[in-house]
Amino acid sequence: MQNSPQHKTALGHIRVLDLTRVLAGPWCSQNLADLGAEVIKIERPGIGDDTRSWGPPYLKDSTDNNTSEAAYYLAANRGKQAMTVDISTAEGQEIIRALVLQSDVVLENYKVGQLKKYGLDYAALQQIKPDIVYCSITGFGQDGPYAQRAGYDFIIQGMGGLMSLTGERDDLPGGGPQKAGVAITDLMTGMYATIAVLAALTHRDKTGEGQYIDMALLDVQVAMLANMGANYLQTGKAPQRWGNAHQNIVPYQTFATADGHIIVAAGNDAQYRKFVQLGGREELANDARFQTNPLRVQHREVLIPILADMVKTKTKAEWIMVLETAGVPCGPINNLDEVFHDPQVQSRQMQVEIPHPSAGAVRLVGSPMKLSKTPVQYEQAPPLLGQHTEQCLRSLLHFDDEKIASLKAAGII
């Protein structure tokens, strides 16, 4: 592939053969597509990616009827071309191998060893394309005692420690472990996989060597414990859940206002004093129990109920206005309607609209990657099942009409 002068992209010279489905793998390939890579998504004939049917909600067509594309599928598959190939057949395997010869990257998230029986594992494909970058995404990695287990985001959030840190304190109403509201381990695995693929491509461009990338959801979840993981390793003491409060800073949490909720993140003593003064409780700034952060942490159980009552005296908008003016870090807790109507979100073009063959257009969340020289292009909506099968077979593998018709009749494509 070559970039045209009008559409210069960072990865316009890269072709990705995407054998992944659901979320972690497609999130990686969508990132690469956003950056300009040509991504060919391989799916099962007649069925496709499981997430195509993970609804409602579904995309509406021009007559306001449901299409076959669930919103879940739409979230992770823009910018791709879609082919249907039955890789369990010898003919399907030959098509994949031929496509590998035309590709720079292979992504897959099959169970450990599953592609080996089809001759589509790294060892086999590396023989025919030595410089291929091959990335496998699984729940637990290619080795270790759990390698054969299926990995699901929810389970990994529990196993990897995130749910021990997320949720209200056990001694408060509603206390207990809680998963994140989105499949954050899948998403972060897709992000780490994107970085690994780009690193491997850089190495290939310098040395001519391809390589194998082994990505595991559990590894990613442990890695993204970040400071909490470091806290444990330095102390040997497992951190506990604190809900929306901070273990080391007070006040640094959510509060209910007269009409909603806000977050107040008073990171120093001066910000705390401004906060209580704006709430009409200046005496709290001078109270000996609360004058420093260590003292506020020590007397948290006394201070927080007082602050909670104070915050209820104003609306969400009133608090945001006065706190922002005074330089006290704060923010609203928005629902998604408020998110997508937020002027900052709109200014940053985090909602995009892309032409769609059956719906006319589809609205999607935009990419956060803002590149000055090679910006993200939104030209290809999440594809219909098999939308580009014949096109890719003709343009990449030079199959003629008779060959394509034969494969279709046999159910191979």
Tell me briefly what this model is.
This protein has 413 residues and is of the alpha/beta class. The protein is 38% helix and 16% strand.
Number of strands: 13
CATH level 1 name of the largest domain? Alpha Beta
CATH superfamily of the largest domain: Crotonobetainyl-coa:carnitine coa-transferase, domain 1
Enumerate the strands of the largest sheet in spatial order, edge to edge or round the barrel. 5-2-1-6-7-8
> Average pLDDT, to the nearest integer?
95
Given helix and strand content, the structural type is alpha/beta
Whole-number total of structural domains:
2
Q: Tell me, briefly, the overall form.
A: elongated
Give structural notes.
- With 413 residues, the chain is an alpha/beta fold.
- It has 2 domains: 5-224 and 346-409, 3-Layer(aba) Sandwich (Rossmann fold), CATH 3.40.50; 252-256 and 261-332, 2-Layer Sandwich (formyl-coa transferase, domain 3), CATH 3.30.1540.
- It is built from 18 helices and 13 strands.
- The protein has a 6-stranded parallel β-sheet, with helices on both faces. It has a 3-stranded antiparallel β-sheet with strand order 9-10-11, covered by helices on one side.
- Residues 1-5 have low confidence and may be disordered.
- Pfam families: CoA_transf_3.
